[in-house]
Specification:
Elements: H1 4-7, E1 11-15, E2 26-32, H2 51-58, E3 61-63, E4 66-67, H3 72-81, H4 107-113, E5 117-123, E6 141-145, E7 157-160, E8 163-166, H5 171-185, E9 191-196, H6 208-215, H7 231-257, E10 264-270, H8 292-295, E11 296-297, E12 299-302, E13 311-313, E14 317-318, H9 322-329, E15 334-340, H10 346-349, H11 351-356, E16 364-368, E17 371-375, E18 379-381, E19 387-389, H12 405-421, E20 434-436, E21 443-447, E22 452-454, E23 458-459, E24 469-470, E25 478-485, E26 489-498, E27 506-512, E28 515-521, E29 548-557, E30 560-570, E31 578-586
Parallel strand pairs: 2-9, 2-10, 3-13, 4-14, 5-6, 5-9, 20-25
Antiparallel strand pairs: 1-15, 3-12, 4-11, 6-7, 7-8, 10-12, 16-17, 17-18, 18-19, 21-31, 22-25, 23-24, 25-30, 26-29, 26-31, 27-28, 27-30
Helix pairs in contact: 5-7, 6-7
Amino acid sequence: MRGAAILLPAIVAASCAAPSPAPSPNVVLFLADDQGWGDLSIHGNTNVRTPNLDTLAREGVSFTHFFVSPVCSPTRAELLTGRYHPRSGVYATSRGGERLDLDETTIAEIFDVAGYATAAFGKWHNGSQPPYHPSAQGFDEFYGFTSGHWGNYFDPPLDHNGRVVTGNGYVTDDFTDRAIRFIEDHRTKPFFVWVAYNTPHSPMQVPNRWWDRFEDGNVAQRHRDPEKERVDHTRAALAMTENIDWNVGRLTERLAELGLADDTIVVYLTDNGPNGWRWNGGMKGRKGSTDEGGVRSPFFVRWPRAIEAGTVVDRIAGAIDLLPTLAELAGIPYTTVHPIDGLSLKPLLEPEARAAGGWPDRHLVHHWRGRTSVRSQQYRLDHEGRLFDLAADPGQRHDVATERSEAAARLTTVRDAWIAEVLSELPDEDDRPFPIGHPEHEFTHLPARDGTTLGDIERSSRYPNDSYFTSWTSPDDAITWDVEVLAGGHFEAVLHYTCGEGDTGAVVELRLGEQALSGRIDEAHDPPLVGMEHDRVERIESYVKDFRPIVLGTIHLNAGRGTLTLRALEIPGRQVMDFRLLTLRRLELPA
């Protein structure tokens, strides 16, 4: 057995990448949300048609055993940094636990320093306020949302480089349109484009064009435990998958039309296992699980100039490998502040390198909410210490820990070393404040998701990501944020609110230390909840409304840490308002 240092290979500081076959290939990186390994026709699913993704796999390399994290934000953190997610401070999917530590080096920063035009379109989910915002993490352009999930997929409010804008149509189509436009505008220089779709994550919304084929269709292939499956949810997820496939096809076709296909590395993967009990190749587990079905992802890489079409790789690999792999394929020497855990997969991608052999044995570790499992090339040790020979038993049905005691002991040692070395990097308590007033960014957004309430204020859903605050009825009630003002100055404070006709006139105060601002909610705005008219399956997330911005006024904030508090001074009606978002806009650069 190799030691723990081999378990967690470190690439410290500079990694000297070999030159690519020609200068500066473009990169387009697709990431789907909650789509399982089994949601593609190329993997044997006869319920769904994914011709464009199937073609992408056949025209490049397909990994049969590629792994991500059990849920969204940890996978994104590993993809961005090449490091296991606990190392970068990511331990949750909301309320600040999804944020990357600020001393991490991201893949976007590496490509940006190398002279690439960089952009992200879609779901970010690794922090909202600069310097956690994607615009401060190496991306020249961002269009999408920074939250973990969103409440409406048709014409929703979105974030464009920090400014609140209104989306155009169905979000997956809109993100693809924006990515294509960016590629068209930057086709004369190398670009790195991350298209991070938020589907088929719930709420299960998809246009009729894609739903019609599934609405009353037969789902022939079922989950291995069919009594667990919600067939209506499966239909919606597969309809959303077919929409993703169409959009991937639109973008790759445009690359060909622009003459860029041969010089563009196109990558496709998903962020965790399926978000429902549906056909997944007979694997055990789904999203949230550290078993095979919760962490196995499609992984396709197409680069016609350098990767032989039809290549199939059976070596285990994971999201931590994306950063070193893409940097080396692009010929970019890079420096990272911390050692990374991933390996460059270039020896497995290119025919000459693959023929040379020498790929090391390795282990991949998967962790979520106290459950840790270890994957070797042949085995998985699950979070309860059971061992499965996946070469003979891909469904994890037969525990072989007793008869394969040496293998079980080896993987147990790997697990214990990972917990001691990696998981221990997470502090016992997250003491990171929400930063506001970054001197290089005009806007800071403080959503209800990141707030804490005092009194009887309620969330619209127990899932915070797209929630708002309601039932605000008392002067004893308040909304607070633990913040740090990075650079002092004057800020315009804007509330995104709704308020019934009979509840206007409330006076609210925004306070940080001795600095305070008050204003009156004097305009009624009481739109209905939306979202249910588009849902194909009843949701668990919050419904949303058309929250209106109202300028509360201007406040001077001094640099430093404190509790930012929003409370009501006068409540003439039944309640103050429903609250979704506080935006602080810097009015001048600090002296």
